[in-house]
Specification:
single chain; about 325 residues; alpha/beta; Rossmann fold; globular
Length: about 325
């Protein structure tokens, strides 16, 4: 089996590449620069230079592969338009490159995000059949990427995965919370405790592999999580327990968070380096319900999460400490 992975040098992508190599797949990684290979630099894989924003650069990457795992995307950006150029137009370019240059493709998996669907406003857990209401530029760009890909589902064996908040070794998203906890501070919103779904990275990788080997209808969409409902404060407590520390709760008002995000965005424009904090990210943070329903993934993909939040936190903390991140 020959596969192409975009976003291979990133957090989730690098874990997926390792799993594919372990399974004996011939892995081709699409990279923008061979000098920056990150976690996959020493793996027995093929590196092909290409950029999803430039369709002509994708021809060599998509040729003669059986499966495409499209994980490349912009999570942070200095300008909002970058999200759409990378997450939406980039996905469209890759889909078209596959259609034009690979007639043998057996599966195209697009890793979208729960952010594309938006929060669950009716209570309970969001399902794939519910309307999409993204609240951030990132979420809107991922949804547009889905729509552009789905417009070609009659030409391409397409499947879309929407993971919730993912954590684990190499993650820089939840790492900010771990850093705060390491200083004995547990930040939270002042007026409510958010309910969210989370997923350990290795469980997500297993779900991606299941999606690759399972026959489904073209254009199917699946939410992915560990199947549990967590309060954000509860997650902080479990992470703190894994770090064997006691943290003081610090309640932050929305206005303060939006103000901090505004200044972070201004600083990003000056330096040209995107910040993990933005007003779009804060807009996601203040939503009360980010729960998703994985019944469909369980039924059609046979997906069953294995790693509890407590165990995942222990594994993540151990890795952070080993790499001197904490």
């Amino acid at each position: 089996m020959k596969v192409l992975v975009t976003g291979a040098t990133g957090f989730i992508g690098s874990h997926l590449v390792e799993a594919l190599v372990q399974r004996g797949a011939q892995v081709r990684c699409l990279v923008r620069n061979k000098r920056h290979l990150g976690w996959v630099k020493d793996l027995p894989v093929e590196f092909v230079v290409g950029n999803c924003q430039e369709k002509n650069s994708l021809k060599q990457g998509v040729k003669d592969v059986d499966q495409v795992f499209h994980l490349a995307g912009a999570i942070t950006a200095v300008n909002e338009k970058t999200y759409f150029e990378v997450n939406a137009l980039g996905t469209k370019n890759l889909v078209q490159a596959c259609i034009e240059n690979n007639t043998r493709l057996k599966k195209f998996i697009y890793l979208s995000s729960q952010a594309a669907a938006g929060p669950c406003r009716s209570g309970g857990k969001k399902k794939e059949s519910d309307p999409c209401e993204p609240v951030s530029p990132y979420g809107k760009s991922k949804l547009l990427g889905e729509e552009l890909a789905l417009s070609h589902s009659h030409e391409l064996p397409l499947l879309i995965l929407r993971p919730c908040a993912v954590y684990g070794p190499r993650d820089k998203g939840f790492y900010a919370l771990f850093k705060c906890l390491s200083k004995s501070i547990k930040p939270c919103l002042s007026d409510h405790d958010q309910h969210i779904s989370v997923c350990y990275v290795q469980d997500l990788v297993r779900a991606i592999l299941l999606a690759a080997e399972t026959q489904t209808e073209n254009g199917e969409i699946f939410f992915l999580s560990d199947g549990h409902d967590y309060r954000m404060g509860e997650i902080g407590d479990i992470f703190a327990q894994a770090m064997e520390i006691s943290a003081l709760q610090l309640r932050l008002p929305k206005q303060m968070l939006f103000g901090m995000a505004f200044f972070a965005e201004c600083f990003a424009r000056v330096t040209g380096k995107p910040s993990i904090m933005s007003r779009g990210k804060i807009e996601e943070m203040i939503q009360k319900n980010w729960l998703c329903d994985i019944t469909k993934a369980r039924a059609l993909l046979g997906f069953e999460p294995r790693i509890s939040l407590a165990r995942g936190a222990e594994l993540t903390v151990a890795w952070y400490k080993k790499e001197n991140w904490l």
